[in-house]
């Protein structure tokens, strides 16, 4: 007897996807308004869905591929993140426990394979260096505590034989125009993207091979052979499905009590005037990740397609297991971001934030992905543990390979992971997370 899946919740994203808002009007893809057939359906048009679409298109000959996105492409978390595609894990464990060295190296190898895949996409679809810039990344410290974090990370990089360069206070000032950062740590393997432009251009390139439907949330699936995916105005009968919906995999009934739904928040200034740009100094485009994991990420971007020069600050995290934020969350984030901005950019005092927003991450207790065949011919590529530009790309590629090839060298390496661990019960989980996150934010001090 075929079973049904009722999708319990659809994505709700607080505020605008600012990286998308500052671009010229986006190309429109139709909503699904009829009943169609396809060999493959991908649900979700973020990094994971697009990587799955591209890898499938390389593997399945002329079989048909449909992608259904609940909202507009680049409006979800994919178009509202800070745009760091990072090859190195945030926490390096080498020297901490036996086997950790190999684990770190394996993560780095897989992350780099995903970045290469994205790089090929960027080349194939002729993305500008403002959209995809393989410039590496800088972690910045504004306090002695931040410097201690950098020192410890540097130590791990040495142990792994990874390349890095330390940046002095003077280097940081020349680069950013700011007095705030005492030290930086540069590593060369990361890429900075304009996330919304990347998603738009990748989709445009893929659209010759893949049929995209926007504003077409999957609300119901009849399981069978083929499966039938129902949207508000149409349906697709398809043999194979890849669910690339990150935390919303739980809304489809999979991985219950195993996923943490965390929101993080950002603010973007209005376009700076020429005078303000001169007052700021430094180079036109840069990004800094905080040395303290609970600190503030900052990006400055110069004009791209009429967007103007802008500054973006991101900080604050809340656990919202109902996958919706409340007005309190937004107010706190705004305060913290205004403070972070004025601490770093005193020369831009009084400049208003034009866009404020939040976005969803999906984490698991043991940092494992929610991956694999969850029903006959339905694969999950979800739970990117906060680093979805890379991990999502990787899991989209891997879901396509698992679904089509069954096995591959990279898949064997990728599949060495456990299932996401079961979470502590409520209310302990949410209360515990709240106290821990606020405590860590407080401890981050000036790095926040
Ligand atoms: C402020 C902020 C900063 C961040 N900074 C970074 C960063 O610098 N680097 C980094 O790697 N990551 C960053 N992230 C995280 C990153 O954005 C996510 O990990 C990433 O977007 C996950 O990719 P994904 O494709 O798996 O999921 P998503 O991007 O969430 O895409 C899933 C898509 O599925 C769609 N969907 C859900 N349900 C349905 C349904 N029923 N039917 C149809 N479609 C559906 C959603 O609308 C969504 O578009 C940041 C996130 C935020 C919010």
Structure report:
By secondary structure, the protein is of the alpha+beta class. It has a domain at 4-80 and 196-258 and 369-428: FAD/NAD(P)-binding domain (3-Layer(bba) Sandwich), CATH 3.50.50.60. Helices cover 32% and strands 24% of the residues. It contains 11 helices and 20 strands. The protein has helices at residues 18-21, 47-59, 100-124, 144-160, 169-176, 195-206, 274-280, 327-344, 388-404, 409-414, 428-444; strands at residues 4-6, 35-43, 65-68, 84-85, 132-133, 137-141, 165-167, 183-187, 191-193, 211-213, 220-222, 227-231, 234-243, 260-269, 286-290, 297-301, 310-319, 353-363, 370-375, 378-382. The strands form 3 sheets. Strands 1, 2, 3, 10, 11, 12, 13, 19 and 20 form a 9-stranded mixed beta sheet that branches. Helix 2 (47-59) packs parallel to helix 9 (388-404). The longest helix has 25 residues, at 100-124. It is globular, with a radius of gyration of 21 Å. It starts with a strand and ends with a helix. The relative contact order is 0.19. The mean pLDDT is 96. The structure holds flavin-adenine dinucleotide (FAD). Flavin-adenine dinucleotide is lined by residues 7, 10-11, 43-49, 68-71, 76-78, 80-84, 217-218, 244-246, 248, 264, 266, 314, 359, 361, 384, 386-390, 392. Residues 7, 10-11, 43-49, 68-71, 76-78, 80-84, 217-218, 244-246, 248, 264, 266, 314, 359, 361, 384, 386-390, 392 line the site of flavin-adenine dinucleotide.
Instruction: Please give the CATH class of the domain at 4-80 and 196-258 and 369-428.
Output: Alpha Beta
Number of strands: 20
Q: What's the name of the CATH homologous superfamily of the domain at 4-80 and 196-258 and 369-428?
A: FAD/NAD(P)-binding domain
Strand content: 15-25%
Structural class: alpha+beta
